[in-house]
Specification:
about 375 residues, alpha+beta, 60s Ribosomal Protein L30, Chain: A, 7-stranded mixed sheet, about 25% helix, globular, RutC-like_sf, YjgF/YER057c/UK114
């Protein structure tokens, strides 16, 4: 099966991004195909995973777990990946797998908070990177209480890496039944960021890039979180609170930057937040018109990339979120030749009238393997 591999190289280390989207079929075929291809690629280039997320339909969870275990063997260091439930896509029940890996002289320490062994601290010389995947707190109670506990645990991981939340350029927030409680989640996150000083009218907002999407964690909790933090002499270079042709998302209550550029292990990484067809005034565009929303969304994301001196060829990973199978079909019709390494998920977007969303990670100078 085809697997997209992009590498950002420095003298000491390479950051490798793998995107494995299966060919059409059932889970019994797709899962061994995907995880076998990933394992072979990692072994061939001598790479070690530092972050992993897996998108799959709930009814194939056992098949996915068995295929992953059979393929990985000692590639699995016991740190939990993000296991995320989707409705599948046009190819079948397994949406695909995204991997961030490293090659080179690095040290990697697994981290744990409250029984969640889902963090890694990676060091190469004077640079460091904290990655957290699949952080959940289902034991906390209500959806709001789980969100509070999840954010507190994320901060705990940051402290273990010797940094605070200001060092976080990117979060991914996976929210089961997002449309039922997205406003409540935003209130929790806003309060958390305000208490830590990331939201500050006087000092300026210092917000990470982020995605909030209606995809639930496989453990049945209301929410889960992935996170990246810079943890050495590397730093966050620029936060684009507004970007491209969109103004700040905080103008309508969502606490994230449109994009953030950070120095990671091997160079510069640009994280473009979840982006949809929202105009400069914060209103949804082209209601009930999937084709126009898709075109405008891709245009908005490209405009943000351009602000960060990136283009399509610099994209190392992307997620394509479609509200319905019909929207997915329209995306393929318009952008079937889009060169972004991509996984497609069918799920709700953050507003009832939005049909499509994308997110992008780009590394200027990365090469395709």
């Amino acid at each position: 099966m085809p697997i997209d591999i992009c590498s950002l190289d420095s003298a000491d280390v390479a950051e490798v991004y793998l995107t494995a989207a299966p060919t059409p079929g059932g889970a019994d075929q797709q899962a061994p195909e995907v995880f076998g291809a990933i394992a072979s690629a990692l072994r061939d280039i001598g790479a070690t995973m530092i972050n992993e997320r897996v998108f799959f339909a709930p009814n194939c969870a056992k098949v996915v777990a068995a295929a992953r275990a059979d393929a990985y063997g000692d590639l699995d260091d016991g740190v939990r990946p993000s296991l995320l439930h989707i409705a599948g896509n046009a190819n079948g029940p397994l949406g695909g797998v995204q991997i961030h890996a490293v090659v080179g002289d690095v040290s990697i320490d697994g981290l744990e908070v409250d029984g969640n062994r889902c963090g890694r601290l990676v060091r190469c010389g004077d640079r460091g990177l904290l990655t957290v995947s699949g952080l959940t707190a289902p034991q906390a109670g209500s959806a709001v209480d789980q969100a509070r506990a999840m954010l507190a645990a994320a901060e705990n991981f940051a402290h273990q890496a010797g940094v605070d939340m200001f060092a976080v350029p990117r979060t991914w927030i996976w929210l089961a039944d997002l449309l039922a409680w997205y406003d409540d989640f935003n209130a929790v996150r806003n309060d958390f960021f305000r208490q830590r000083g990331l939201l500050s009218d006087s000092a300026g907002h210092q917000l990470p890039a982020s995605t909030g999407i209606s995809i639930g964690p496989a453990d049945g909790g209301h929410c889960a979180m992935d996170m990246v933090a810079v943890a050495g002499d590397n730093k966050i270079v620029e936060r684009y609170l507004a970007g491209g042709d969109q103004n700040s998302a905080f103008d309508y209550g969502s606490a994230f930057s449109r994009a953030v550029r950070a120095e990671t292990l091997a160079g510069s990484t640009v994280y473009v937040s979840g982006t949809a067809a929202i105009n400069a005034e914060g209103a949804s565009e082209h209601i009930d018109d999937a084709a126009a929303q898709i075109a405008d969304t891709i245009g908005h994301a490209r405009a943000v990339l351009a602000d960060a001196d990136c283009g399509d060829d610099d994209v190392v990973q992307s997620m394509i979120y479609c509200k319905t199978p019909e929207v997915e079909q329209e995306f393929h019709r318009q952008f079937g030749d889009l060169c972004w390494p991509q996984i497609i998920a069918v799920c709700d977007i953050c507003r009832h009238d939005l049909l499509f969303e994308v997110e992008v990670t780009a590394c200027p100078g990365a090469k395709k393997l």
